[in-house]
Amino acid sequence: MAEGLIAAIVVFVLASFVGFEVINKVPPTLHTPLMSGSNAISGIAIVGALLIAGPKEWNLTEIFGLIAVIFAMINVVGGFLVTDRMLQMFKKKEAKV
Q1: Over the chain, what is the mean pLDDT?
Q2: What number of other Cβ atoms are within 10 A of residue 28's Cβ?
Q3: Distance between CA 9 and CA 59 in Å, rounded?
Q4: 61 contact partners, CB below 8 Å, separation of at least 6
Q5: Which of 16-20, 30-34, 79-83 shows the lowest mean pLDDT across its residues?
Q6: What is the per-residue DSSP string for 37-92?
Q7: Confidence category of residue 41, pLDDT binned at 50, 70, 90
Q8: Count of other CB atoms within 10 angstroms of residue 45
Q9: pTM above 0.90, yes or no
Q10: Distance CA 48, CA 69 (A)
């Protein structure tokens, strides 16, 4: 049990450092496409959280699954709204007659 927990913590810390370095190197012009990609990843997280929250009996795992579904949905909807708003800035406005 302790060995698995230590391995999980090591993987989490390494992924955090790698993720920080990768995101730090992204130019601002690629921000919008990457945001859309991260929203797709959050959609995958929603599916996984729904699978965890699926059984009828309630215990700590199902509660965490429900919380994950709520947060992932907020992230997906908010991310797509922000992405859409940013893309609207690049559209040409029609001249008023």
Answers
A1: 77
A2: 6
A3: 24
A4: 52
A5: 30-34
A6: HHHHHHHHHHHHHHHHT-SSS--HHHHHHHHHHHHHHHHHHHHHHHHHHHHHTTSP
A7: confident
A8: 16
A9: no
A10: 9
**Is it the case that residue 4 has pLDDT exceeding 80?**
yes
Q: Which two tokens stand for residue 15?
A: 């992924």
CA dihedral 51, 53, 54, 58 (to 10 degrees): 150
At residue 13, the pLDDT reads 93
Which pLDDT score, from 0 to 100, does residue 96 have? 67
Q: Token pair of 51, please?
A: 């699978």
Rounded distance, CA 94 to CA 83, Å?
21
Closest by CA to 41, choosing from 15, 83, 75, is 75
